[in-house]
Amino acid sequence: MSKISQLLRLYSLMGVIRYLRMRVMGKEILITGSCHCCGNCCRKINLEGVQGWLRSEKDFYTVLDEYPEYERFKITGKDEQGFLQFSCTWLTNQGLCRDHENRLALCTNFPDKTLHFCGGKLPSGCGYSIVEVRPFDKYLEDEVKGEGE
Ligand code: SF4
Ligand code: SF4
User: Which of 65, 100, 138, 143 is the most exposed place for a label (fewest CB within 10 A)?
Assistant: First the structure.
């Protein structure tokens, strides 16, 4: 399987375009900001399986065999990239996690950098931002090669 086909299995078309553009431009992802506990990321969740972001109900049930703790998630539809979208049944009416101490790794790690390659965006009102940046060492490399003039 070609590299592009592998990437398309993992990410959306938009995500692969972002990934390749960033590679060419020598950019990296930087997550800035902080969480102000609005709970929106628990209402619109994309889940990742071994084969990439989940696109079908069948894929979700396969993942459930391996991760029964994902039973807390309910399918609510699909996003504009064609990936399944979930809400979490652990979210209370007050917008808080029912068991914050024992939430999953995907909850504590949110927003994960690979979300950018899912092609979507952060939930509305999220206190974080995902930005593409060019690290200082890339500028330094350009200077050494004489391209920064
Ligand atoms: S387990 Fe808690 S933090 Fe994680 S998605 Fe559910 S409600 Fe949100
Ligand atoms: S959407 Fe962003 S600000 Fe809101 S709870 Fe999730 S991480 Fe925090």
Answer: 65
